[in-house]
Amino acid sequence: MQKQDLRKEYLRQRKALSEQVVEGFSRKIHDWFFRSFAVHSFATIHTFLPIKHNNEVDTWLIIKTLQKDFAADIVIPKSHPNGTMTNYLLTEKTVLEESNLKIIEPNETQNSELRTQNSKIDLVLIPLLCFDKKGYRVGYGKGYYDRFLAECRPDVMKIGLSLFEPVEEIAIDEFDVKMDYCITPNKIWSFL
């Protein structure tokens, strides 16, 4: 199936989910993550902040557990109109703001000392609309994460978070970056 068709269909399906269902699925994904990965072995973990009006996986559940029980640095992205992202440490001092796309992001000016190089990141939690059984994903179509992942170390662990199980196959482009794993409410898919 073509990406634009999958994008429309899974945006529709996700928006049809109730807040309670998204929260329940997000809790299951949180539990799979902490039960199945050696989280303590990662020094720096990148995660997206959820876009609530798009019913994204609530990564705040994961962030709060990381902050409470683990010593890892948490970094979050700031997207730019040119299709790139920069990353900033998430601390009690991090100033967050809502972008014109209604995405919660770090304020670049007020967080400049918290900027983190991609080379320091050990694990990336990746947003997506859907994914296939080979480990490729469909996002919103702007290519932010494919560009970002291409700039990370080759050994960075790439874990997608999905509210839905995979489709059979996605028509991929040469710049698409394959995930190592994808966590759904029902299981962890491995692509290694």
TrEMBL record:
Q: Which cofactor does it need?
A: Mg(2+)
Keyword Nucleotide-binding assigned: yes
According to its UniProt record, this protein's enzyme class is: ligase
Q: What is the E.C. number?
A: 6.3.3.2
Presence of the UniProt keyword ATP-binding in the record? yes
Q: Which InterPro entries match?
A: FTHF_cligase (IPR002698), FTHF_cligase-like_sf (IPR024185), NagB/RpiA_transferase-like (IPR037171)
Q: What reaction does this catalyse?
A: (6S)-5-formyl-5,6,7,8-tetrahydrofolate + ATP = (6R)-5,10-methenyltetrahydrofolate + ADP + phosphate
Which UniProt keywords are present, listed alphabetically? ATP-binding, Magnesium, Metal-binding, Nucleotide-binding
Pfam family for this entry, one:
5-FTHF_cyc-lig
Superkingdom, natural source: Bacteria
SUPFAM superfamilies from the UniProt entry:
NagB/RpiA/CoA transferase-like
Q: Which family does it belong to?
A: Belongs to the 5-formyltetrahydrofolate cyclo-ligase family.
- What is this protein identified as? 5-formyltetrahydrofolate cyclo-ligase
Gene source species: Emticicia oligotrophica (strain DSM 17448 / CIP 109782 / MTCC 6937 / GPTSA100-15)
